[in-house]
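Re-run requested by the PI after the first attempt was lost when the workstation crashed. Everything re-entered from the original request form. Ligand of interest: iron/sulfur cluster.
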Amino acid sequence: MIITENFEIAQKFTDLMLTAYSSENIKGRSGVHRSSIIDCPLTLYYAETGEAEQHFDENNVGIWLLGELCHIAFTKYFDAREKVFNLAGIKVTIDAIYNNKFPVELKTTRKKIYKREDLLDDWIHQLSIGMAVMESDVGYLIVMNIITFKLQVYEFHTTKEEREKILEHSLWTIIDISNAIKKRNPNLLEPKYEKCKTCSFRPIKGVDKKNCLFYRRPN
Ligand code: SF4
């Protein structure tokens, strides 16, 4: 018997799974979603205009699979799962709802989270938008570390004024992106370079796809 590691087929399987996942969960979901407010604004621009194409590498698969499995297992017994709210045309999907009124978001991570200050801004932003659309002053963030298997829950509290500010900022973000799409001008958008490292629109050596012209190599 001969056993060899086949890098080419690994890439093909990766593309097969993640491209299908992306088209079902990102492109296949009609309309604009909350993630577009949080991600680099160019990702929605490219998704809508096709001026760059997504590519996934094999390093993305495990993280994605674990995240998906954790979501299914954790949210199974909550009052509601994947509930969609509408924010002026933007779809906000809440992972789960606790006690019929409090939004719950789940994040899987390899990072060591010891305290509130270690939480990623994106996670905080995501739950804050969820609390704002649900008009809930309390929300929960579950953080599952996939290396140590430790589970933590952070309880968020926001005021009405804070929630209104979040909604307003979300709407302006989408208006700006829509304007750039309409004018077919990506230069109107401010790239979030800190996301380039893992972005599916980044240029990848040996991959012949239209990629993002604004990509910046991480320091
Ligand atoms: S490669 Fe960087 S600038 Fe381009 S879409 Fe991705 S995150 Fe934005």
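Saved to the shared folder this time. Residues 40, 42-43, 191-193, 195-196, 199, 201-202, 212, 214-215 surround iron/sulfur cluster (CB under 6 Å).
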